[in-house]
Amino acid sequence: MITRRRLLVGFALGVLVARGRGHAQPTKPARIGRLSPLSAEADDSNLAAFRRGLRELGWLEGQHYAIETRFADGKPDRLAALAAELVHQRVDLILIGSTPGTLAVKKATTTIPIVMVTTGDPVDGGLVASMRRPSGNVTGVTALGQALNVKCLEIIKEALPGVTRVAVLANSGSPYTRQFLAERDDAARALGLQVRVHEVRDLAFDRAFPAIRTDRSEALMVLPDATLITHRRQIVELAARSRLPAVYGEREFVDAGGLMFNGASLADMYKHAAVYADKILKGAKQADLPIEQPTKLELGVKTARTLGLTIPPAVLARADHVVGVTADPRRPPHWRLRWRRSSTWRLRPIGPDWTRARCGSSPCSNTTTACASASG
Q1: Cα–Cα distance between 250 and 38 in angstroms, integer?
Q2: Is there a contact between 180 and 146 (Cβ–Cβ < 8 Å)?
Q3: Between vectors from CA 177 to CA 87 and to CA 161, what angle results, nearest 5°?
Q4: Which of 51, 213, 359, 362 is the S-S candidate for 343 at Cβ 3.0 to 4.6 Å?
Q5: Among the listed residues 220, 174, 182, 224, the one whose alpha carbon sits nearest the alpha carbon of residue 199
C-alpha cells in the first residue's frame, strides 16, 4: 500500500530529477553552425577559444555537440549563401561574427538562435532592439568597435604626442567606415590632428601604403573589419616597412606584430560566446540574455623598440597586458576581462587603474575619458 509519506518523497525526488535535467546537456548532441567572415586559418584561434569555453562548461565535442563550419574568406558577398546553407542543415544554434554576417543569418532565419560576436554596434546596425533585451533571435557579445574609433585617435595622440598627421586604413564597403567618416572631422579638430582616410578596394594594400607615405602621415589607424583582419599580417608588415606606428581595433593585429591595440580580443569574446551557447542549448531564451561588452588595451612594446619609440608611462599604466615586458610585481595583475553591459557602464580612469561609473547612454557618449581598459 502506498502511504502519503511515500507519495511525498516520490514527488520531491521527481522535482529534483527534473531540475537536474534542466541544467544538463541535451540528450542528443547539439548541432552548432559556425559562419565566419574570415578564412579558416584566420578564424582558427576564435573557434578554438569557443571550444575551450564550452569545454570549461562541461561540453565535450563529439559527445555533447558538433560544429558545422562555413567560411567567407573575407568576402562579405558570400555570407548570404553560406547562412542559407546552415539554415538548410537545421542546426540548433548559429555562431556568427561581424555585423554583415549577423544580418545575413538574421535574414535567413527568424527561429534558429543566433549568438553573435561583433565589433559593431548591434543596435545601430539593426541587429537587436536594445542591449538589455535584444528581442528576436539574436544575442551575444559586441566590442562596440566603431564607438572606440575616436578613442583610438586619442590613444595615438597620447602615446605619440608629436604626431599631427594620421592615416586611417579602412575597407570601402564596411559599415564601420561610414560611422568613422561621420565622426572624423570633429574628433580631428578636438585633438589637433589632420586625419585622412584611405579606403582599400579589391585588397589593394600595396597601393594604399605608398599613398599614405605620400601624404607624409606619421601614424596609422586601422578600422575594425573582417576583410582587414583576414589580411592582418600583410597590413602589419606594410606598416613596419613604412615605419608607421599603428593602432588597431583587434588584438590579433598585435599578435601578428602590430604596435598597439585598443578594443577587445576576439578570442576572449568567442570564449565568452560559449556562455551564451551553453545557456541557450539548455533552454534559455536568447531574447532574454543581455548583450555584453569587454574592453581592453594592449601594447606591443617589441614593435615600439623596433620603431625607436618610447611609450609614455601613463599609457603603459593603463594597459591590461604589455607584450614583451616583464610584469612589474608592484602592479596588480590585469589578466582578467571584466564583462559588462555596455548600455549600463562606462570606464573612467582613477589613477593608474580603472573603475566603473554610471552611464545612461548606449553606446557610451563620453568623449573626454578613454573607455579603453578594465582592471581585473
Answers
A1: 14
A2: yes
A3: 135
A4: 362
A5: 174
